[in-house]
Recover the amino acids of this structure.
């Protein structure tokens, strides 16, 4: 990590305004900015946040919670969520700025923040943050980048979603080069872009992305834990104590490759007709998937303790997606004591190499189905992998991840001080 930071330092200044303008900003930064104990003022911009349920929203919320827990002043900028924010306490304005938003096409439960450059300029001129952290690259993120550039403030971004890869699943493959170009320009204007895995970093480097640093995602090992296993819930599924339950958690959408999961389940049924498939989540593909696999159990969207119980009450986790930047559900399943069957991508590639599950070459659909059938019919192998999974995720708690992000903030602020 130190060597990567050392390489970054010479190019940082070229990402910000000309020297004369930068000096004016430097005067506003106190000399004790180098003090490793001084709380930082962070503007964190995101276009998705709880109660929206998705991997980006939940991991951003954990980062905000962790940074505030370490004493930092985090001001959140996000789209207004009409139902949730109608009853928002007035004093939340001290920690949040809400902007207008629109529903995302085909994702109506999520909102896209509209550009708000002028409003952000006014906000940050009144109380300038030490840095701006942009978690998403939509119109609001773009506006935040413009405002930060005009004020000469450092910007750190994250690459969280493979939007360019999603396009092929919605008949928009022709848009992929345009989306890639936008994302490359966006992130290359930032001082640093954090990516969740080395494999993702290498793919982005090949596409011309610059100044990338791997910072993994965390998992809440208290919330996701085998002790929440519920026999009552298993009985609702029609599962006896020795019935293998294959679980999937995530959006029911084309990019999640759930046709393959159903195919794998059908193979498992041939080995054990009592096996169960439980899908947690909702999305545009639900009706079609129910028609394709009427015997599957569609539990809908779950959060909190209900989600934890669903994880812990299953026996193995199937993750056929090939479009993830990370895949938070993989460490969540592992922390819940589940072996995982997945392709050698994203979080699975990072976490499953020690025998905590079965990794398949990307696109090896036959191998994926065979792996599900094998684990589904060999409980001793499942239990062995579950133990390894628990050991692996023990080192991926959010406290360590937040500490790494904080260290990057301080190193990049220090690089900007003459």
């Amino acid at each position: 990590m130190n060597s990567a930071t050392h390489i970054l330092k010479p190019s940082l200044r070229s990402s910000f305004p000309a020297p004369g303008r930068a000096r004016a900003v430097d005067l506003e930064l106190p000399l004790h900015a180098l003090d490793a104990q001084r709380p930082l003022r962070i503007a964190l911009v995101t276009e998705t946040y709880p109660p929206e349920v998705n991997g980006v929203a939940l991991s951003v919320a954990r980062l905000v919670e962790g940074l505030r827990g370490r004493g930092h002043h985090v001001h959140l900028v996000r789209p207004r969520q009409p139902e949730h924010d109608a009853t928002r306490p007035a004093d939340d304005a001290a920690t949040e700025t809400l902007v207008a938003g629109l529903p995302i096409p085909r994702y109506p439960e999520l909102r896209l923040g509209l550009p708000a450059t002028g409003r952000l300029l006014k906000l940050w001129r009144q109380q300038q943050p030490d840095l701006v952290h942009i978690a998403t690259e939509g119109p609001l993120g773009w506006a935040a980048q413009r405002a930060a550039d005009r004020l000469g403030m450092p910007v750190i971004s994250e690459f969280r979603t493979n939007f360019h890869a999603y396009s092929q699943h919605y008949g928009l493959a022709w848009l992929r080069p345009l989306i890639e170009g936008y994302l490359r320009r966006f992130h290359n204007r930032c001082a640093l872009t954090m990516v969740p895995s080395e494999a993702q970093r290498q793919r982005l480097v090949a596409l011309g992305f610059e100044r990338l640093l791997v910072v993994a995602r965390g998992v809440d090992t208290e919330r996701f834990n085998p002790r929440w296993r519920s026999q009552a819930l298993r009985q609702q599924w029609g599962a006896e104590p020795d019935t293998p339950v294959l679980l999937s958690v995530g959006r029911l959408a084309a990019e999640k490759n759930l046709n393959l999961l159903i195919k794998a389940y059908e193979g498992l049924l041939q080995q054990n007709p009592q096996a169960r498939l439980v899908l947690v989540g909702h999305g545009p593909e639900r009706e079609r998937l129910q028609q394709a696999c009427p015997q599957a159990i569609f539990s809908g969207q779950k959060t909190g303790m209900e989600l934890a119980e669903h994880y812990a009450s299953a026996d193995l986790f199937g993750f056929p997606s090939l479009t993830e930047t990370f895949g938070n559900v993989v460490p969540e399943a592992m922390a819940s004591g589940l072996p995982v069957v997945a392709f050698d991508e994203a979080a699975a590639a990072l976490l499953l190499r020690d025998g905590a599950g079965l990794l398949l070459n990307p696109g090896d659909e036959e191998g994926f189905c065979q792996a599900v059938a094998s684990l589904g019919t060999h409980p001793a192998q499942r239990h062995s992998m579950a133990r390894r999974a628990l050991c692996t995720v023990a080192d991926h708690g959010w406290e360590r991840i937040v500490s790494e992000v904080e260290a990057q903030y301080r190193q990049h602020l220090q690089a900007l001080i003459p």
The domain at 2-19+26-218+398-416 is CATH 3.40.50.2000 (Rossmann fold). The longest strand covers residues 73-79.
